[in-house]
Known about the structure:
Layout: H1 5-17, E1 22-25, E2 34-37, H2 45-54, H3 65-70
Antiparallel strand pairs: 1-2
Amino acid sequence: MKPNFFSEIELAVAAFARGEFVIVVDDVDRENEGDLIIAAEKMTPEKMSLLLQYTSGVVCVPMSGERLEALHLPPMVS
């Protein structure tokens, strides 16, 4: 672990709270990829456009089963 690991986390949390995108990277021994995340309450049409334009275009949003049923959204994977 790098010596400034926790300060980097604090910077990321502060950026997240301000409504900025944060890249979260998993382990090199896992998928070795990064996810571009933002607080849903801070999302705007302009930020969504940026997200869709510069990423794979797959947008993940956590929702309750009740909300998914109300929107008639099937699971992406089983």
